[in-house]
Design a protein that fits this description.
With about 475 residues, the chain is α+β, with helices and mostly antiparallel strands. It has a single domain, classed as Adenovirus Type 2 Hexon, domain 4 (Distorted Sandwich), CATH 2.70.9.10. It has 8 helices and 24 strands. The strands form 7 sheets. Strands 1, 3, 7, 8 and 11 form a 5-stranded antiparallel beta sheet that branches. Strands 12, 14, 21, 23 and 24 form a 5-stranded antiparallel beta sheet that branches. A hairpin with a 2-residue loop joins β5 and β6. The longest helix is centred in the middle third of the chain and has 14 residues. The relative contact order is 0.19.
């Protein structure tokens, strides 16, 4: 049996270090090209509209190269000193997508968890890192809030969405042969206007509205997406590869493909310092659960943005601002005096009455799990986008619990909790919170309130590994 590059030994079984091996190889009859794909729908779209594209059929596609190119123009509301402009949020390319659906041969393989932008932001806070965020993301997807001239005009920018959550970005096989899996269709639903950041004419980012008219205009800001297109790379491999795939189909009846699938759950109208979001998922591999809290008005357009405290590094300047829609809060009862103590927040997860962890965890447990749940362990591991207790508490709060085993095979190996065929009840037990004061906008007078309601909404994401099986004649089945 052939050994992999990192397992090579000499004839007597002695290990040979990788950096002294004279081992080379080559790929014959290999070629690559890139295609521009036009949308099936109209060339312009706005909030709530669906953008559809069909990927090339009969080709071996590189999913890591799949990109959504578009221009986005913020639409202001009102006129004169009461005019309110629409500013794009952090990671605008990602934040403007509300739902992603992926279909193979008409079969929904990615169900489209509600609020894809919220899910993707939670994943990026933990899985992402500062180097990429301040370079590639800032360059392509508009990573930082950027009003070119504060108080002067709405945003107008060209963006590219290239980092995907789910089947398009987290899959066991990077190159998918659509001659076997069939035609792939991707549907994107655009986000509501609540993701935008309002900015009154002549004011600075985050300033309160100076009039009731301006506050009313803030609820009517919008955006328009145009010049939409998609690109993807196709590769051509040695004909032997295609023969191997078909031989596998003849011997094993199907080709398996693992990918990440997500489910989301919400608990609204939380007014007390303790809450227990409950949920249930039937899956062959429950890998991780993640949770956060937001103000209950996160779906309301025109709420002022929040400036993150102690962001530091790449979080300085406009990057320290986050839209109300994606302001994740712990609502932790902190020690008086602005100290950096963990505070009174306590939590744990429960799966079929088994507590995880076996004690009431604190904010510092959540802080450590930001990296641990993504298997970022050791001094040489990558960091995350959560850089301080201030940002973790108010703006970037993510609480996670890992359920699978980290392996070198990643998505290719199912190792999470199998909940199929049993009545699985799960909950997130949280206490020690303090609801923010109700600070509404004041009708009939110049507005000074921040718009907070004093009511919280919990959002829980369940990360699973699903399996797509392709059989003879492009017959497909999905095991969630």
């Amino acid at each position: 049996m052939a050994m992999s590059y990192d397992e090579i030994k000499d004839m007597e079984g002695r290990f040979i270090p990788e950096n002294v091996r004279y081992l080379v190889d080559s790929m014959s009859q290999y070629s690559r090209n890139r295609f521009r794909l036009e949308t099936v729908s109209a060339q312009t779209a706005g909030p709530g509209r669906i953008v559809t594209v069909n990927l090339p059929e009969g080709a071996c596609l590189d999913l890591k190269s799949f990109r959504f190119h578009f221009d986005v123009q913020g639409i202001s509301s009102g006129a004169g000193a009461d005019e309110v402009h629409a500013i794009l949020p952090n990671d605008a390319a990602q934040s403007l997508v509300q739902r992603v659906e992926v279909l193979f041969n008409g079969i929904a393989c990615q169900q489209g968890a509600s609020e894809y932008n919220t899910l993707a932001q939670i994943k990026k806070l933990t899985k992402g890192n500062q180097d990429r965020w301040s370079s590639v993301d800032s360059l392509c997807s508009g990573a930082a809030v950027n009003p070119t001239l504060p108080g002067a005009a709405s945003s107008n920018e060209s963006l590219v969405l290239q980092d995907w959550v789910g089947l398009l970005g987290e899959v066991s096989t990077r190159f998918i042969d659509t001659s076997i899996f069939g035609q792939c269709q991707v549907r994107l639903s655009l986000a509501p206007t609540a993701v935008l950041i309002p900015l009154q004419q002549g004011q600075q980012l985050g300033d309160a509205y100076t009039s009731v008219a301006a506050e009313g205009n803030s609820h009517n800001i919008s955006y328009s997406v145009s010049n939409m297109s998609f690109t993807i790379d196709s590769v051509s491999l040695n004909p032997i590869y295609n023969k191997l795939l078909r031989d596998r189909l003849e011997n094993d009846d199907y080709l398996p493909l693992n990918y990440k699938e997500y489910y989301s759950f919400s608990l609204d109208s939380i007014t007390s310092g303790a809450s227990t979001p409950r949920f249930s998922v039937s899956s062959g591999s429950l890998d991780c659960v993640l949770g956060t809290y937001r103000d209950s008005n996160y779906l309301t357009a025109g709420i002022l943005p929040h400036q993150l405290g102690g962001a530091g590094g790449a979080g300085a300047g406009y990057a320290a601002w986050c839209t109300n829609y994606l302001r994740f809060r712990s609502l932790n009862t902190l020690a008086v005096g602005g100290t950096q103590l963990a505070g009174a927040l306590r939590y744990n997860w429960s799966i079929n009455n088994v507590q995880m962890p076996q004690y009431r965890a604190t904010l510092m447990d959540a802080a450590c799990d930001v990296a641990y749940a993504q298997d970022k362990v050791g001094m040489d591991a990558e960091g995350s986008l959560i850089t301080s207790k201030d940002t973790l508490n108010d703006g970037k709060f993510v609480c996670s619990q890992v359920l699978n085993h980290p392996t070198r095979w990643g998505v290719g190996c199912k190792s999470g909790f199998n909940s199929r065929g049993i009545n699985t009840m799960m909950s997130w037990n949280v206490s020690g919170q303090t609801m923010t004061p109700n600070d509404p906008y004041v009708p009939g007078a110049p507005t000074t309130g921040t718009g907070t309601t004093g009511i919280a909404s919990a959002y829980v994401v369940v990360e699973t590994t699903a399996e797509l099986r392709a059989g003879v004649g492009k017959s497909l089945s999905v095991l969630f």
